[in-house]
Amino acid sequence: MPIEIQLPRLGWSMEEGKFLAWLKNDGDFIKEGEPLFTLESDKAAQEVESIDSGILSIPATGPKSGDVIKVGHVLGYLLHDGESAPFSNQPAPKTKEPIEAQQPGKKSIHSSAPILLPEKRRTETPASPRARRAAKEHHIDLSELTPSGKGGRIRECDVIAAASAVASTGFKKIPLTSSRRTIAARLMHSRQTTVPVTITGRCDATQLVELRKQLKADGESSANTIVPTINDILVKLTGAALRQHPLLTGVWAEEHILVPDAIHIGIAVDADDTLLVPVIRNADTSTLTQIAAQSQRLIAAARTGKLAAEDMQGACFTLSNLGTLGVEAFTPVINPPESAILGIGAIVREAVPLDDGRFTARDRLTLSLTFDHRVIDGAPAARFLQTLRQLIEQPVLGLV
Q1: The pLDDT of residue 344 is above 80
Q2: Is the overall model pTM greater than 0.70, yes or no?
Q3: Could you point out which of 13, 102, 333, 388 has its C-alpha 20 to 30 Å from the C-alpha of 206?
Q4: What fold, for 129-168?
C-alpha cells in the first residue's frame, strides 16, 4: 500500500510551511531516516527525514519551491516494487530486476494512441501575470477576488478595483505571513499561561562602554574578524548572574518547577519584518569570544532566512535589546515556556552628581526584567537584577 508523505507539524502552533526543495529525485529508493525534503517554518529552514522506506513517487502536481502548504497535505508517496501511486496507473520501477524487453503484440510507448495524463490540479488562484504584479504591489489577496476573465481568470482590472475599494475605506490590507501568525499565537499563549510582572533598574555602564571600545581596538589591531558587541558582553554577564540565581531559568510544570542544568540564552533578532530568537549555548561557561562567534553566526543566519529550527530551541532565558533603536525602557513579553526575559535599553550619557556637589558625565543603562510570578517572587527577581547590575558596572571582573 502506498505510504503518504505528508507535510509535518514542526512546531506547536505551526499550521503551514514553505516547501523549499526535494532532496531526492522521483524514482529514487529512500531509506528510513534519510533527508527527504527541506521545509521552512517561521523562517527556519529544516531538513525533513523519511519515516519509512520505499521508492519516491512525486506527482506532477506535487509541491514546487516556494509553495506554502498546509500541515498534513500529501506531498508524494513511498511505493514498494511494482506498486502504483494513487495519482497514476504507472507502477513503481523495479529497483533490483532488469527492465523486460518489449513483448510482441504489446503497444509501444511510441504508439499513436493518445496517452491520458492525470489532470493537473491548480495550486493557486488563476490570474494573469499583470494581475499578480498588481496584487503584490497593492497587498491584495487574489483568492478573495471575483474573476472577470475567461475561465475564471483574474485580470489586472479586478485587482485595481479591489485596491480602490480598500483605499476608499482609508485602510490598506497587508496579508499575514505564517511567521506573523506564529508570533501572535505565541504572544497570546504567553499572556494566557503566565503571570507577568516587570521591574526595572538602572546601572552605570561607563566601564561596559570602555571595555567594548578596548575590545574593538584590539580586534582592529590584530585583524580579528570576531569582535564582541555590547550585547555579547551582556549575554556573558547575564549567564553569570543566572548561575547565581537559577530560579530565573525555571519552567512552571504544574506539580513542580524544572530548573535546567545548562544555561542557554535566547537573543531576540529583528529579521526581515519578523522576530526570531536564536539561542546562545552555555552562556555562563563559554568565553566571550565563543559567545561572539555563536552570536555572529546565528544573527547572520536569521537575517538570511537560513536559521535552523534547532538553533531556536532550548533557551531558558531571553535577552531583548531595543537600545540600538533608542528605546530606554520597555516591557518585554516572556517567551514560553521560559519564566523570564530581560529588556536592554539604550545607553545614555548623563550628568551624575558627586558627593562634593559637582557633576560628572557617566553612561547609564536601564534594565527591564519581566518574570512569571508563579515561578519567581519579586525579591528573588530584584536580587538577580542587583547582581547583574554589579557585574555590568565591573564587567572585567564579571568576565573573569
Answers
A1: yes
A2: no
A3: 333
A4: Dihydrolipoamide Transferase (4.10.320)
